[in-house]
Specification:
The protein is mainly α. The chain is 54% helix and 6% strand. The chain has 3 domains: 143-353, Clc chloride channel (Orthogonal Bundle); 388-440 and 485-620, Orthogonal Bundle (Clc chloride channel); 632-811, CBS-domain, CATH 3.10.580.10. It is built from 28 helices and 14 strands. The strands form 6 sheets. Strands 7-9-10 form a 3-stranded mixed sheet. The chain has a 3-stranded mixed sheet with strand order 12-13-14, with no helix packed on it. A two-stranded antiparallel ribbon has the order 1-2. A hairpin with a 2-residue loop joins strand 1 and strand 2 (100-103). The protein is elongated and about 100 Å long. The two termini are 51 Å apart. Mean pLDDT is 83; it is low at 13-29 and 41-86. Its main location: membrane. This is Chloride channel protein. The chain crosses the membrane at residues 132-158, 178-204, 225-250, 294-317, 329-348, 381-401, 421-442, 501-523, 589-606.
């Protein structure tokens, strides 16, 4: 009876939403009632010390904060659930995208099964289904073509710009004009670096970095406007060209993944009403599920375009990028990467006729220059295992230092575009000084006898750079520093000359690349991690191979390849995709057992210290990433233990003013709809309605003065396409509505747009099980319903933020998560 009286009073006040005051007696009555409920729950869970301790902590919090509960809820709106706990989710709703702080929200991967969707599904014809299938494959073809062309353009531009800069420096060095050569080299690098930084700082800050963490977060269900925006694509392409050409220790492979995802996102926008680029067929892709599949294809195409590795691109998307996978997507992704491979092969054949400037036969990294036969014995396997252990240690240390540097750079980047550019200038000058100054420490080496190629190489890329040496000699350190990154990797992986590089040269180059790679990643330019990691790994791999010398049957170039594999495994923690990418790069299938072994060892060693570099960056940037597995401490809690408020519900036929006010005072994207008498015998959960759908419905103004069902009229007035998700930044906003004062007291029927089959779990379900369910189904909202009848039909709603450790451990600080 006490509860019924309280419920009646609460229902009367909640109709208005704008609560002017709350009676003192009602506040005290609620506090007493809540205290009794907590006591009963403690008695029920007497056997669980952890849960009893958490409830005791909750009781203390209630006693200290209970008096301010209603004043807080006056600002937030109504409560229709008296059992909802006094808690809010204070996890961050923003994240760092590139070098920019952006608001984030979740994506709606779940199918909204409302009356409009069912009507559209029933009226769908076989021709429309055929159109949808054809369009999916057409988009896959276009993504492959576009990404292949962009990848080829990037390589041509980098090879020609870098080639011009290096030729200018080399010609001045041949004339013994060393100071002018240094000034020309530093000046060219500085101009290119400033141009790349200006693009990132002023046009698209989200284009900074590799972009793989952002794509990974998007495919996990986290969206921010700038992740895949057209401006991000533009800056990603040209900023990457300028940054790599500027001599930074960065690669263009990571940005290519982001570029492929941006291209796929633009194709999947469903056209543009602004530019009248609309087509009836394009409406099929105005949803997050199909866009997710397209962006997965784009990410795979980016890897295929960067490494000329179609199978490796598919496996990269499967192992690292995508959070949801199915067989149909595997086939479509493979088709996309195959198109990329065909495009690149055709364009490379065209460039063999020297019509691409300085591009020549190089550019797109293909290390099929290693002709050594991999014959190995037991001592060689021990050396390979040692290489894997070294790679795991160096890789975990690399990840740790990158994390610290990124946190430091974020403080500088927050000061504005000017400080971003100044940081880029400082790193550019340091890199140029190292690349030009360190080769002076190396001794000149006589050219080997009976070489097929010219030594020293003049006017082109090659293994033997003259630098300051006399005729017939070369500087082995300048052959690594004063070259493009792709040519430097080719030189390290070359075979046939064990003594081509001195041990001191390899050590200096490894130390410089290791340190420069750490301090370069995080500045405001598009930058990838693959190439710096491959360079550093190949350096210490060849160093070990040269040191072992004749004690090993493996060539020094093969050791360089295994060193690159070990460092990649130690930093990125991928196995299958990296193995295939390296084998496709080197065109040497005989290395498969050794590459597999070194990857497994390096990943195992590195996993004992920290997570992979992309996982660390995702967490550091603040993305609420849902892992594939639940944390162990989640098994100690149930779903209702982390439900946060305020919970605002709507009736099946709701007053317009209530909806407008709820949209104003909250940022919620989903609201439970509860049917009450006279539309049902007892309060029952009708479903879930989305914020975007409410805005479209209110924009149509199908209101009534009486509280009656008008679903048939709404179905005639609207179509499913009216509620489809628009493109980037084109959705309705609350400010776009023009609701008159007299319309605020009218009613609107929410049943036609309510998802009548939302995903629900019982309040007593383990939080770990709920987290796995949430992630595997790709949900945005998970409704928590009561276990026993006679209570309100919904306890609360779980979103991805409710599964974050910051929220859970903030509510229950007595739970100590295990140290990783």
């Amino acid at each position: 009876k006490e509860f019924a009286v309280y419920r009646e009073r609460e229902r009367e006040t909640s109709r208005k939403l704008k609560i002017d005051c709350v009676f003192e007696g009602l506040r005290k009555e609620f506090a007493v009632y809540r205290e009794r409920i907590v006591k009963e729950r403690m008695d029920e869970r007497e056997g669980s010390d952890i849960e009893a301790e958490g409830l005791m902590y909750e009781r203390k919090e209630l006693q200290s904060n209970g008096s301010s509960f209603f004043s807080d809820r006056e600002m937030d709106g109504t409560i229709r659930e008296p059992l909802l706990k006094f808690r809010k989710n204070n996890t961050s709703q923003i994240a760092i995208v590139g070098a920019n702080v952006c608001p984030i929200e979740s994506l709606d991967y779940e199918i909204v099964e409302n009356d409009l969707f069912k009507q559209d599904w029933r009226s769908e014809k076989k021709v429309e289904i055929f159109q949808y299938v054809v369009l999916k494959w057409t988009f896959a073809l276009l993504i492959g073509l576009s990404t292949g062309l962009v990848g080829f353009f990037n390589n041509i531009a980098v090879e020609n710009i870098s080639g011009f800069k290096l030729l200018l420096t080399s010609n001045l060095m041949l004339k013994d004009r060393y100071y002018q050569a240094f000034a020309a080299y530093v000046g060219c690098n500085m101009v290119l670096a400033i141009a790349a930084a200006a693009l990132c700082a002023y046009i698209a800050p989200a284009a900074a970095g590799s972009g793989i963490p952002e794509v990974k977060a998007y495919l996990n269900g986290v969206d921010a406007y700038s992740i895949l925006a057209p401006s991000t694509l533009f800056v990603k392409i040209f900023g990457s060209i300028l940054g790599v050409s500027a001599g930074f220790v960065v690669g263009k492979e990571g940005p290519m993944v982001h570029t492929g995802a941006c291209i796929a996102s633009l194709l999947g926008q469903g056209g543009s009403r602004k530019y009248r680029l609309t087509w009836k067929w394009l409406r099929y892709f105005k949803n997050d599920r199909d866009r997710r599949d397209l962006i997965t294809c784009g990410a795979a195409a980016g890897v295929a375009a960067a490494f000329r590795s179609p199978v490796g691109g598919v496996l990269f998307a499967l192992e690292e990028a995508a959070s949801w996978w199915r067989s149909a997507l595997l086939w479509r992704t493979f088709f996309t990467t195959a198109v990329v491979a065909v495009v690149l092969r055709s364009l490379i054949e065209f460039c063999r006729s020297e019509k691409c400037g300085l591009f020549g036969q190089g550019g797109l990294i293909m290390f099929d220059v290693n002709s050594a036969e991999p014959t190995y014995s037991i001592p060689d396997l021990i050396a390979v295992i040692l290489l894997g252990i070294i790679g795991g240690i160096f890789g975990s240390l690399y990840n740790y230092l990158v994390d610290k540097v990124l946190r430091t750079y974020s403080i500088i980047n927050e000061r504005g575009p000017t400080f971003k550019i100044l940081l880029v200038i400082a790193i550019s000058f340091l890199t140029s000084c190292c690349a030009f100054g360190l080769p002076w420490l190396a001794n000149c080496t006589p050219c080997p006898i009976d070489l097929e190629h010219e030594c020293p190489t003049i006017g082109r890329s090659g293994n033997y750079k003259n630098f300051q040496c006399q005729a017939g000699h070369y500087n082995d350190l300048s052959s690594l520093f004063l070259n493009t990154n792709d040519d430097a990797i080719r030189n390290l992986l070359s075979s046939g000359n064990e003594n081509e590089f001195h041990l001191s040269t390899l050590f200096i180059f490894f130390a410089a690349i290791y340190c420069l790679g750490i301090i370069t990643y995080g500045i405001a330019i598009p930058s990838g991690l693959f190439i710096p990691v491959i360079l550093a790994g190949a350096s210490y791999g060849r160093l070990l191979g040269t040191f072992l010398g004749y004690m090993s049957n493996l060539d020094a170039g093969l050791f360089a390849l295994l060193g690159a594999a070990s460092f990649l495994g130690g930093t990125m923690r991928m196995t299958v995709s990296l193995c295939v990418i390296l084998l496709e790069l080197t065109n040497n299938l005989l290395m498969l057992p050794l590459v597999m072994l070194v990857l497994l060892v390096s990943k195992t060693v590195a996993d004992t210290f920290n997570k992979g570099v992309y996982d660390q960056i995702v967490k550091m940037k603040g993305f609420p990433f849902m892992e594939a597995h639940a944390e162990p401490y989640m098994t100690q809690l149930v779903a209702r233990d982390v439900v946060s408020g305020p919970l605002i519900t709507f009736s099946g036929v709701e007053k317009v003013g209530n909806i407008i006010h709820a949209l104003k005072i909250t940022r919620h994207n989903g609201f439970p709809v509860i049917d009450e008498p006279p539309f049902s015998d007892a309060p029952e959960l009708c479903g879930l309605v989305l914020r975007a759908h409410l805005l479209v419905l209110l924009k149509g103004k199908k209101f009534t003065k009486q509280r009656v069902l008008t679903g048939t009229e709404i179905l005639r007035r609207f179509h499913a396409g009216d509620f489809a998700k628009p493109g980037l930044g084109k959705g309705l906003k609350l400010a776009d509505l023009d609701i008159m004062d007299e319309e605020m007291d009218m009613y609107v029927d929410l049943h036609p747009i309510t998802n009548t089959s939302p995903s629900t779990v019982l309040e007593m379900m383990s939080l770990a099980k709920a987290a796995v369910l949430f992630r595997q189904l790709g949900l945005r909202h998970l409704c928590v319903v009561p276990k026993t009848p006679g209570r309100p039909p919904i306890v609360g709603i779980l979103t991805r933020h409710d599964f974050m450790p910051e929220h859970i451990l903030g509510l229950y600080p007595h739970i100590k998560p295990p140290r990783k």
